[in-house]
Every structure is written in C-alpha cells, then in structure tokens.
Amino acid sequence: MAAEFVIEGLKATIEGKEILKGINLQMKGGEIHAIMGPNGTGKSTLASALMGHPKYEVTEGTALLEGEDLLEMAVDERARAGLFLAMQYPSEISGVTNSDFLRSAINSRREEGKEISLIKFIRQMEAKMKELEMNPEFLHRYLNEGFSGGEKKRNEILQMMMLDPKIVILDEIDSGLDIDALKIVAEGVNAMRSPERGFLVITHYQRLLNYIKPDFVHVMMQGRIVKSGGPELAERLEAEGYEWVKEELGIEDETVGQEA
Amino acid sequence: MTTQTILPVDAARISELSQAGGEPVWLKDSRLKALELAAALELPKLEKTRLDRWNINNYGSHKAGASLASLAEAPSSVAALIAGQEEGSLVIQRNSGAVYTHLSPELAAQGVIFTDLATAAKEHGDLVQKHLHKAVLPDEHAIAALHAALWNGGVFLYVPKNVVIDTPLQAILLTDDAEATFVPHILIVADTNSSVTYVDNYVSDKTESGLHNGAVEVFVGAGAKVQYASVHQFGTDTTDITYRRAVVENDGTIEWIVGEMNYGDTASDTKSVLKGNGASSDAKVIAVGSGSQKLNYTTQAQHFGKNTPSDMITRAVMRESATSIINGVTKIEKGATRADGQQTEKVLMLSPKARGDANPILLIDEDDVTAGHAASVGQVNPEQIYYLMSRGISRHDAEKLIIYGFLAPVVSQIPLEGLRNQLQTLVERKLGQ
Ligand SMILES: Nc1ncnc2c1ncn2[C@@H]1O[C@H](COP(=O)(O)OP(=O)(O)O)[C@@H](O)[C@H]1O
Ligand SMILES: [Mg+2]
Known about the structure:
The complex is a heterodimer of chains A (260) and B (433). Chain A is α/β, with parallel strands linked by helices and 260 residues long. Chain A has helices at residues 43-51, 75-81, 98-107, 118-131, 149-163, 179-191, 231-240, 243-249, and strands at residues 4-14, 17-28, 32-36, 56-65, 68-69, 83-86, 167-171, 198-203, 216-221, 224-229. Chain A contains eight helices and ten strands. In chain A, the strands form two sheets. Chain A has a six-stranded mixed sheet, with helices on both faces. By secondary structure, chain B is an alpha/beta fold. In chain B, 23% of the residues lie in helices and 38% in strands. In chain B, α8 (382-389) crosses α9. The longest helix of chain B has 17 residues, at 395-411. The relative contact order of chain B is 0.09. Chain A binds chain B through residues 51-54, 74-76, 78-80, 85, 87, 90-91, 93-96, 100-102, 104-105, 108-109, 142, 159, 163, and chain B through 381-384, 386-395, 397-398, 401-402, 404-409. The structure holds adenosine-5'-diphosphate and magnesium ion. Magnesium ion is lined by residues 43-44, 88, 172 of chain A.
C-alpha cells in the first residue's frame, strides 16, 4: 500500500521558544516533496520534531503515517513505523561499529529468533556500499567517528537503503558534498524511489533538485510553509533567490523568532 | 599512631598454624614480623575513600577446604569457570587453602613450577623466600602487613629461563565460607627470556560478609614477558582489597588485563615498577559498578629504567548508585631518560546517582621523557541515544550499544578470546541485561 503521510497544524518549541508555527503538509507514496528556505527558517526543526528529538517539544498537531500518529510514538517506534531521517549532523558513536549498529537496526524490525544472518547482512551491506562507492572498511569503522562530512552523508544514505523506510526525510543531504559525491548520493536516492515510498527533501540550494527531481516544492519561512508549487517554483528560486517571495508575502526577516 | 589496628589473630595462633602447616621457619618468622607491623601501621590512604568505614575486619579463622580428588568434585561456581579446560594447568583455592593443583607434564618436564604457594614455600623454599613480599612490602600499611601475616593457599608460578609457554595457566580462588580466612597470595617469577600467560578468577559463593585481602607479585626477568589477566567477580558478600605489583627487569614486559566485576566494595591497586632499561608495561582495566558499591581503582607505573614505555587504560561504567574513584599515577624517576608514560581513565555514568571521579597524576623528575594523560567522566549522551533510536533501535538496546562501545576499545584489545567472551558475559550480567 502506498504510504500516506499527513502533517496537520504542527507546532513545536525548543527551550520554550516556538519555532514551528503550524505546519501542514500532505504526501503520498511515490512523491518527492522539497522543502526549501534560507537558513534559520525551521526546516531542521520540522525534521527533528517529526523524528522526536528530545530537545523539541511538540505543542500541537498530528503527523499521520498510514493513519497512525507518529507524534504519539517513541523515537524508535516512529522509525519502525517507517520514518527515516537522514540527519544534517549525524552523531558520532565511539566503539560501535557501523555494521553492529546497522544490524541492530535491522533486527529491531524483526521478531526475536528471526534475526538477519550475519552473512546475509554483510552481503547486503557490501552491495549497498558499493553502489555508494564507499570503501568496505567503513563496515568496521566506529559509527561516524572520524568520517568526513561527505562520508557521513553517504553513511546516512546507506542506512536509508538498508532500512527500507516508507517516508524518508533528507535534511541538507547535499551539504558538504562535492559534485561527484552529490551525484552518487542522488543516484542512491533515485534508486530507492518507488510508489510505496515518499521523500521529503530539505535543502536551501536548488542544486540538489537537479539530481533529485521533486514533484512538489514548499518554501519555509518563519516556521511556516509560506508557498507551495511544482518544480517550476524551485527553478524560479534558483534564478531569482528568495527576495521575491518575501516581498510578495510582506516578510522582512524570514528566520524564526525575529518577529518576537 | 592515631588508630590501633585490630588484629584478627595473635602471634601464638600464627605460630601454631605455621607449625601445623609444616612451614619453614623463615616463613613463620616472616609472618610474625608482619603481624607486629600490622599492629603499628595505619590503613593505606586512598584518594577520597574512607577505608576505615568499610567492612574490612572480617578475616574469620583459618579453614582449609578438603582436597578435590578430581575436578568432577569441584563446586558449581568453579566448574563453570573451568569448563572445556579441565586438562590444563590449574590451581584452585577454596577458602583458606588449595584444594586442587595440576601442572601439565610437558611443562613440568621443562622445569616449570606451578602449585599453591603454601606447598611451594616448603618444596621450593629458596625461590619463594627470595621473592615473597619483595614487591608488595609488608611495611607499606596495615593491610599489606596483615596480608603478609595471614596469607594462605595462593599460587606460585616459576618459568625457567628461555621457556616459552603458549597456553595460559589458570587459577581459581573461591571463598564460600564467610568464617574462613581468605588471603591468597599470587607469586609469579618469570626467569630471563621466558614468556607466560596466567589467568585467574576470583569468585565467592556465600551470604555472610567476608573479606578478600589479596596480593599479587610478579617478577619479570630480563627479556621475559608476562601476561597477567585477572577477573574479580565476588558477590556483594565480599569486600575486596587487592594489591598487584610487577617488577620488570631490562627489556621485560608486563601486561595486565583486569576485569573488576565484583558486586561488593573494592579497592585495587595495580602497579608496574619498570626497573630495568627497556622494560615496558601495559595495563588495561575494565570495571562495572552497580548497586551501592564503593570502588577505588588505581593503576600505577613507576619508571626507573631508561627507554621504558608504560600505558594504562581504565574504562569504568557506573550504574545505580555506585561510586568510583579512579586513579592513574605515572611516576618517572630521575635518570629514566626517554621513558614514555601514558594513561587514560574514562568513566561512563548511567544514572544520576552514580558517581565517578578520575584522577590522573603525572609525577616526573626527569626532563627527557614523554608523558600524557586523558581523563573523562560523563553520562550517556542523549543525542547519541536519539540517533540510534531514530534507526528503530530500542532505548534499552541503544544504551547497551553505547555502553559496550565505551568498553570496546579495551575489551577488543584483550588477546585471549575466552577471557574476552567471559568479560563480555560478566559485563552483561552486571548491567542487568
Ligand atoms: N538548539 C536550539 N536552541 C535554541 N534555538 C534553536 C535551537 N535549534 C534551533 N533553534 C532556533 O530555531 C531556528 C530554526 O532552526 P533550524 O530548524 O535549524 O533552521 P534551518 O534548518 O531552517 O536552518 C533557528 O533560527 C534558531 O533560532
Ligand atoms: Mg537545518
């Protein structure tokens, strides 16, 4: 069944300060939505609030994935329900190898006694790493420890490929990537496109969208989606920047919290 | 003297026991002299630890266990530890004395001695007398003095010149009678260019509280290599005070691997004295504290020889309301040129009530040296838990991954697979998983 993801009236605060001021968004399996916007407009906050980062408090709203409200679930339950967030700043965890970590993640989706066999897991992981042109030694490296920015991003995509989620949020997956790495990552994402899977691609550059073609584009400012359209919206933003949007909507400062 | 040590025995009783055990006169005299010292000496001063408030007076009285005719008679707490290694060289102490000793015939043929220390004192008196109490001195403090007065059972290992032993020799030290004195002494002498691995396990199986006052002395001859692995897994019933010390001659190597997995209060001090030029030391300690344990772990390296490297790593996980003081002391004496002393102490606390304190100390009296230390005390990082959980891993498993990850740099370096697995299991048990 095609995943349906509906965010309604989502508000969230950090340290008592409201950052998200009512987000509404509907996505279906097979669709790619892009969220664009300058820095500091609440894009990562949206991603983090959906995933359940402990620093963010959701004060209002729902986020239904196939009818189930993710916001009612613990972080791990959201993941097992099918949400995946490729983070802007993935954590480094010393002493935990990439392979032990990913195997635990896969097994968390399986019943006890039905864990993936080590051989099968390693084969899968090696195959995906090859697609992403990652050195096989990354299997045994400690999770993200000492990885370059680009290696961390590839590792996020690797996890996405291994975990087969229904809704994928990519938060600034293009930052820190050179053009070749960007192409590899985009190919990885495109290979995962399917009618069962929806993507929410967060970026403040249009560049990424040349490689991952969105069906819908949303502009975020001041903690809200202020404008939505098709791929042509991204192209206009690329050509003209964000100023015209601000003028059109009468926004002086697009970042969150400045109006207070 | 401000405090008077309460002596658990008097001189007459010590003489009587020594005589009954058929001990040589020098040993009886050594015990009596130590007893006098014990009366005069103070308890050791441990960093931020009031040893006088610990339960450290339960010496009980001498009770020798009945010898085991075969390993099939071994108590269950011991049987589990020797499963699969029944043929190997093994010494078992139960309460106040040895109950089983076995040395493989091949090693015996090469002149290796491996038996309980009480027997060795009778059969290899010169060798024992030459080394006993020469690394942990009875006049250091009341605990060491009482140890020297009361030691029982124990292990003696002698590896002759140029003999290289591949398979580990093993000892098990069990206390399962709270009324029995349990003061084992481990003495290892590795002659020039020899090499040996020795592994011991300390276990308890009783309900009333008791004390382990233990000492380990390792003499590493020139060019010799000793790997000493020790796992302490006493229950809450046992207070554990252990002094381990190695004296290393020219180009000798001591490697300590210590698993502090007790459930009771524990003070341990593991020290390498790098006496000869080119002598080296490597110490790895992993510890898990739980319940309301009070813990004080010290590792030390003292450099006298030139070109002497030492490395000490302690990683400790504290849960519930366990309290730990972790000390690292690197001392480089004048003249120990090109010594290199490194140490790292890290504590991971799993609960708001757990306490950890890391004290790295560098004492350097020589200019031409390198030394370094790193210490950290912290909680599990919530950002890391979030990251792992965001991939579907439960909070419980996420914490587990992070804790094992914290210990992994030490555990993964343990060269003995059996020991590595054993420690893994003990860690899991202590973490309640
Ligand atoms: N940890 C934080 N503490 C306080 N304020 C924060 C924190 N993280 C984000 N914010 C606030 O939220 C706003 C939106 O941040 P963010 O969602 O990261 O923006 P974007 O991803 O669009 O660049 C920022 O301008 C900042 O003021
Ligand atoms: Mg961001």
